[in-house]
Design a protein that fits this description.
By secondary structure, the protein is of the alpha+beta class. The chain folds into two domains: 12-117, 2,3-Dihydroxybiphenyl 1,2-Dioxygenase, domain 1 (Roll), CATH 3.10.180.10; 132-258, 2,3-Dihydroxybiphenyl 1,2-Dioxygenase, domain 1, CATH 3.10.180.10. The protein is built from four helices and 16 strands. Strands 2-3-4-1-5-8-7-6 form an eight-stranded mixed β-sheet, covered by helices on one side. Strands 10-11-12-9-13-16-15-14 form an eight-stranded mixed β-sheet.
């Protein structure tokens, strides 16, 4: 299931990052994840793994990752977002021969994108080391986020109890089968959510990338000039070991090792 040729409406399908110095970001991520790269007509750097698109890097400020959700109409979704209490950050626009996209924000201010595909069908490789696996929302208003994303995309929220008073939210899309057989959550889970980790951390979406060795990947990220925001830790009740990182320009992401095989 790791090779994909398209997604369903309501499913996160692509991740892209903007940086003031995109070539520096490229150097960091290619060395960390083993990506190769090509330049697209819209001047984004398309990162590939095994010849299949996995992410994009472009120029912009501040440095940030954006998660895009596949939709039938970017324009209609922008209207739905405002009706549900969100806002439009960048009005729908065409990326020639690629997609029609928009940047939107939920009521708490977490920015995400929508992707109405043309020729580009989102990430073509997911859920394997070096590739994107899941989008994660950090929100100060989990209840409000559950209501908002249900209204916009039809996501169903479910609490996953990790024990010891720890829990996070799974967003599921009824009828969708994605993911991988070995993952520790149902295969219709398309995103996760946790409260923002303390004061001063704004609401945000961030991507998670699978790796072969999370401890080695965290160490390598620091060697390359990145920051270790949360050292590698085991997620209780799951076969997952994860770290939270920031690249040298400040864009945050996580990396995860699945500690059991298929």
């Amino acid at each position: 299931m790791s090779e994909r040729d398209g997604y369903e409406a309501g499913v996160p399908c692509w991740v892209a990052t903007t940086h003031p110095e995109p070539q520096d970001a490229l150097a960091f991520y290619t060395q960390l994840f083993g990506w190769e790269v090509r330049e697209s007509p819209d001047r984004y750097l398309i990162c590939t793994l095994r010849g299949r698109d996995v992410a994009a890097i472009g120029e912009g400020s501040p440095a940030a990752w954006h998660t895009y959700v596949w939709v039938d109409s970017a324009d209609d979704t922008a209207v739905t977002v405002t009706e549900a209490g969100g806002s439009v950050v960048a009005e729908p626009f065409d990326v020639p021969s690629v997609a029609r996209v928009a940047l939107l924000a939920d009521p708490a201010g977490a920015v995400f994108g929508v992707w109405q595909p043309r020729e580009h069908l989102g990430a073509r490789l997911v859920n394997e080391p070096g590739a994107w696996s899941m989008g994660a929302l950090n929100s100060p208003d989990p209840d409000g986020a559950k209501e908002f994303y249900s209204a916009v995309f039809g996501w169903v929220a479910e609490t996953m109890d990790l024990g010891g008073g720890m829990a996070f939210t799974l967003f599921r899309l009824t009828g969708y089968e994605g993911g991988e057989p070995q993952q520790p959550v149902p295969r219709d889970v398309i995103a996760t959510m946790a409260p923002t980790p303390g004061d001063g951390v704004p609401p945000h979406w961030s991507p998670d990338f699978w790796v072969d060795d999370i401890d080695a990947a965290a160490e390598r990220a620091v060697e390359l000039g990145g920051q270790l925001l949360a050292p590698p830790y085991d997620i209780p009740g799951t076969p997952l070991r994860q770290a939270v990182l920031a690249d040298p320009q400040g864009a945050t992401f996580s990396a995860t090792k699945v500690t059991v095989g298929p």
